[in-house]
Design brief:
This protein has about 90 residues and is an alpha+beta fold. It has helices spanning about 10-15, 40-50; strands at about 20-25, 30-35, 60, 70-75, 80-85.
C-alpha cells in the first residue's frame, strides 16, 4: 500500500534559511525572507508562528517603527531578502 507523502512548505524554508521570524510580539512580527509571494509568505508565517487567537497574521499596511517602508530591503542580503511586518 502506497502512503501519501505530506509536504509542508515550512520544512523547506526552515532548512534553507530563506525564511526567519526575527522579531515576535503580541500583535506584530517581523520576517526576513527571499519569498516575495505575499500569499505564500502569509501562509508560512501563520504555520510557523500561530497567533493563538482567532485572528491570523496579515501583512501590515503601515511602516516599520523605524520609518522604513513595509517591505524594506534586508541590510545583510539586500539583493535577495526583504523584511516584512505582520500584524494580527
Amino acid at each position: 500500500m502506497k502512503k501519501d507523502i505530506v509536504f509542508n512548505a515550512s520544512d523547506v524554508y526552515k532548512t534553507t534559511k530563506d525564511f526567519e521570524i526575527y522579531s515576535n510580539g503580541l500583535c506584530n512580527c517581523s520576517v526576513c525572507t527571499n519569498i516575495h509571494n505575499i500569499e505564500q509568505l502569509t501562509k508560512l508565517v501563520n504555520e510557523e508562528n500561530p497567533t493563538g487567537i482567532r485572528g491570523k497574521w496579515e501583512l501590515s499596511t503601515t511602516k516599520f517603527q523605524t520609518g522604513e517602508e513595509n517591505p524594506c530591503p534586508c541590510e545583510q542580503n539586500p539583493k535577495t531578502h526583504k523584511h516584512y511586518l505582520f500584524v494580527c
